[in-house]
Design goal:
This protein has five helices and four strands, in the order ααβαβαββα. The protein is of the alpha+beta class and about 150 residues long. A hairpin with a 5-residue loop joins β3 and β4. The N and C termini lie far apart (about 125 Å).
């Protein structure tokens, strides 16, 4: 049985709506697209989601050992005439140290190797490329005694 026509004009019920939809589909929505106003002359890439890394395996099998340990930092004590004068008069021991070592590392290495507390460290790089460290000891410790017992200098 065929569908009944509507009582008024003889047209089906949703014809008006369907014809409007068909016209819109034919026209497309590009006709009334608004252009974005750009206020800057430079283009900035929009920020997108960056996920944190979740590697499936370690790229290094084991971490490397510390490159500067106490034995590498302090190369040797210096026993030149001027170093001996510093030892006697200023309570200061002079060491040749690694060029890459800083004052804090030198201080820790002296504490670990020789159990001596240092008040102050002055460093310089000699013309031959080696680093020299002047280590001033605390007043309660005698540098001559340390040099004789622990360093076997005097």
């Amino acid at each position: 049985m065929a569908p009944k026509d509507s009582a008024k004009g003889g047209k089906p019920k949703g014809l008006k709506q369907a014809s409007a939809a068909a016209k819109a589909a034919l026209r497309g929505d590009a006709g009334h697209k608004k252009r974005k106003v750009r206020t800057s002359t430079t283009f900035h890439q929009p920020k997108t989601l960056t996920l944190s890394r979740a590697p499936k395996y370690h790229r290094k099998s084991i971490p490397h050992t510390p490159r500067l340990d106490a034995h590498k930092i302090i190369v040797n004590p210096l026993n030149t005439e001027s170093a001996m004068k510093k030892l006697e008069e200023h309570n200061t021991i002079v060491f040749i140290v690694d060029v890459k070592a800083n004052k804090a590392q030198i201080k820790q290495a002296l504490k670990k190797l020789y159990e001596i507390d240092v008040v102050k460290i002055n460093t310089l790089i000699r013309p031959d490329g080696k680093k020299k460290a002047y280590c001033k000891l605390t007043p309660d410790v005698d540098a001559l005694d340390v040099a004789a017992t622990k360093l076997s200098l005097v």
